[in-house]
Automatic annotation (TrEMBL):
GO cellular component: peroxisomal matrix
Signal sequence region: none
Protein name: D-aspartate oxidase
Species whose genome carries this gene: Sander lucioperca (Pike-perch)
Recorded GO MF terms: D-aspartate oxidase activity; FAD binding
Length: 338
């Protein structure tokens, strides 16, 4: 008989990573993952899934490095195993290029990706509008494959899944002992967090199998990411924009900007358009709190607000959330159940 009942809310890359970490590490807990939307209908499903990050302003650098390093090493092991095709995780090499020399020429994650170096002048010649570039090998994690693969691992570890929209965390108090909130943008209403907001991103999938290297403009708005079945080209970063439908003007702009970086994109067939809302926050929220729900103090572990870097940081923040769940297990009144 499992003595502690844990519920993870959210079936995106953050929810499933966290649920797998908990179910595998704490076999005496029964773990249920509950969400309104599952793959292929989450934000995570459409992410390009390149491992790469920007710095969050108020999180100690050592903690951000840990998140990146744990995620990178976890996915690298998958990319180099027989699970790689099924999990949709692969190594990818390419360039990040800048019109002007960036303030931070050696970002914090450069020590974890493979072979990070400054591009040579002769390499930069193919990008005449850019003056500086970084070459490296990182990971591409395609969530349309990775999420079903995580779900399989979760069920194998004894986890259960329920599809349901929650209007309030109060709906959970009679059935569970610990709530883990990985609801992304849903946290705005579910836990009343006004610091979380959408950053709209539109991308296209194009058929261009001749492209093997990623190209990303350092401004973060234009990128070409070759994947397993197609090439993702993007994008947009529209803060506070909740529109989920594709915008014709955005499509045109994406194709024009990407063709400037790689002329052959203008000849590529567009296979699909997709829009997602990045669950953004000044800093991701990975912390625990005791919440009063119907007169009862309920431990809630939050793990959301990863913005444009959720795939990159999922495993690292999931491990930290697991640590917070362990802490909840050692605190009263939960102890009485053990
Ligand atoms: C165009 C684009 C490109 C991107 N590219 C990259 C990239 O290259 N690399 C990278 O690292 N990241 C990238 N991202 C960011 C990444 O997609 C997100 O950071 C990540 O998907 C967030 O995952 P999540 O699990 O927090 O949220 P989601 O995937 O949105 O999942 C949230 C889950 O919570 C559930 N939920 C919410 N509210 C409720 C409720 N009330 N009741 C029940 N369930 C609820 C939802 O149904 C869903 O299952 C990109 C994003 C976009 C839009």
């Amino acid at each position: 008989m499992k003595s502690v009942r844990v519920v993870v809310v959210g079936a995106g890359v953050i929810g499933f990573s966290t649920a797998v970490c908990i179910a595998e590490a704490l076999p005496f807990c029964s773990v249920t993952l509950l969400a309104e939307k599952f793959s292929p209908d989450t934000t995570s499903d459409g992410a390009a899934g390149i491992l790469f990050a920007a710095e969050f302003p108020d999180i100690p650098m050592e903690r951000q490095k840990r998140w990146f390093k744990y995620s990178f090493n976890h996915l690298l092991a998958i990319a180099q195993s027989k699970h790689s095709p099924e999990a949709g995780v692969m190594l990818t090499s390419g360039w990040q290029i800048f019109r002007d020399i960036p303030a931070d020429k050696k970002p914090f994650w450069s020590e974890f990706v493979i072979g990070f170096r400054v591009m040579t002048d002769s390499e930069l010649k193919r990008f005449p509008d850019h003056t500086f570039g970084q070459a490296f090998t990182t990971i591409k994690c395609e969530c349309s494959s990775y999420l079903p693969w995580l779900e399989k691992s979760f069920r194998k570890a004894g986890g259960q899944v329920e599809q349901r929209k929650l209007d309030s965390l109060e709906e959970l108090i009679n059935s569970y002992d610990i709530i883990v909130n990985c609801s992304g943008l849903g946290s705005k209403t579910l836990v009343g967090d006004n610091k979380v907001y959408p950053v709209r991103g539109q991308v296209l999938k194009v058929e261009a199998p001749w492209l093997k290297h990623f190209i990303r403009d350092g401004d973060g708005k234009t990128y070409i990411y070759p994947g397993i079945h197609s090439v993702t080209v993007g994008g947009t970063r529209q803060e506070g924009d909740w529109r989920l439908q594709a915008d014709e003007g955005d499509t045109k702009g994406i194709l024009e900007r990407c063709s400037e970086l790689e002329l052959s994109i203008s000849k590529a067939k567009v296979l699909s358009e997709w829009v997602g809302l990045r669950p953004s926050r000044r800093n991701p929220r990975v912390e625990k709190e005791l919440v009063w729900l119907q007169g009862r103090r309920m431990p809630v572990v939050h793990n959301y607000g990863h913005g444009g870097w959720g795939v990159t940081l999922a495993w690292g923040t999931a491990l930290e959330a697991l640590g917070l769940v362990r802490q909840c297990l050692h605190e009263t009144p939960l102890q009485a159940n053990l």
